[in-house]
Write a structure and sequence with these properties.
The structure is a single chain. The chain is built from 12 helices and no strands. With 314 residues, the chain is mostly helical. It has a single domain (75-313), classed as Rhopdopsin 7-helix transmembrane proteins. Helix 5 (111-137) runs antiparallel to helix 6. The N and C termini lie far apart (43 Å). Its main location: membrane.
Length: 314
């Protein structure tokens, strides 16, 4: 993973290397830099992941230029790319607007509050960008695909960590002890998840269920501070002023996404090839991730306004 990043930093011109004509077999395709799309059975082993997606695969390119050019035509990763690329671009423009909103409406807000309000949107931008990068470059080569996939995992774990930090901050806004307690808990769990998800011996389709389980269990540990908050502050206050209703919405979207991700429905149960380009489980999973992250960001904002008494300024 580090080697891939170092290679790009040392030789950025490789990002714009033209595709090798050998990558394409059709002369017209070579002219347009649009390769003939492959079937699942035509892919090398390292590229095979979901046997229920039968067609629409980009051939192995060994070219960043070819990978980036694939953004201009339809294949079975197009929706996976754009379901995260468009929200990432939106966030990039929204973050400065958020800072302007805080400065104009709450000029005396401490730097810690500003940091927390920015943390999850900023991490979501990172996560969505890394996901977009992986799905764009996954057909480059085995090494680049694996490296970008590990970065994608890092993005997911970063989003989980930042969501915990911000949610706990506003949920226990008046209790630094409980903030530190649950921050310590999530940092420990994220450390364990990193080992399970990023260890070189635990890569590949064989360990896919293990990685999914690690992500889900780490996310589910968020129920502990929510339940504790309800015990300390009561149901009404936890929901009305501490964001619990939005955490439940967030969990619902993430949970729904995990179901689609692990079950590979609808392509697993539907007509073969029907969902190859549009509507596959991973595309639905991407949309659920965006909705879950959006629910969390809005929940942090609402809970913070309630804590500082700023509902009238919203």
């Amino acid at each position: 993973m580090a080697s891939a990043i170092g290679l790009v930093l040392r030789k950025p011109h490789l990002l714009f290397r033209k595709a090798d004509p050998k990558d394409n077999t059709n002369p017209e395709d070579r002219k347009n830099l649009r390769p003939h799309l492959c079937t699942f059975d035509e892919l090398p082993k390292w590229y095979q992941d979901n046997p229920h997606i039968r067609t629409g695969y980009r051939p192995v390119s060994n070219s960043y230029h070819s990978c980036i050019h694939s953004l201009t035509y339809l294949h079975n990763e197009t929706m996976n790319v754009y379901t995260h690329l468009i929200p990432a671009i939106t966030l990039a423009f929204a973050l400065p607007t958020l800072q302007i909103k805080i400065s104009s409406t709450y000029p005396d807000a401490p730097w810690t509050d500003r940091f927390i309000l920015t943390l999850t949107p900023l991490t979501a931008l990172l996560t969505l960008s890394l996901s977009t990068t992986y799905h764009t470059l996954m057909n480059h080569s085995a090494f680049i695909s694996e490296s970008c996939l590990l970065l994608d995992y890092v993005g997911i774990l970063s989003l989980i960590l930042s969501s915990f930090i911000s949610g706990i901050y506003v949920g226990f806004y008046d209790s630094p002890f409980h903030q530190r307690l649950y921050w310590g808990m999530i940092c420990s769990l994220i450390g364990i998840s990193c080992l399970l998800v990023l260890h070189p011996r635990l890569q590949g389709p064989r360990f896919r269920p293990h990685r999914t389980t690690a992500f889900v269990l780490t996310a589910l540990s968020g129920l502990a501070p929510i339940i504790h908050g309800m015990w300390l502050y009561g149901w009404s206050d936890t929901v009305r002023r501490r964001g619990a209703n939005w955490w439940f919405a967030e969990g619902l979207w993430y949970g729904l996404g995990a179901v689609f991700f692990s079950s590979r429905i609808p392509e697993r149960r539907g007509v073969v090839g029907k969902w190859d380009l549009l509507g596959s489980s991973h595309q639905i999973f991407h949309i659920c991730v965006v909705l879950g992250a959006s629910a969390h960001c809005w929940g942090v904002w609402c809970a913070w306004r309630a804590q500082v008494g700023g509902w009238d300024k919203a």
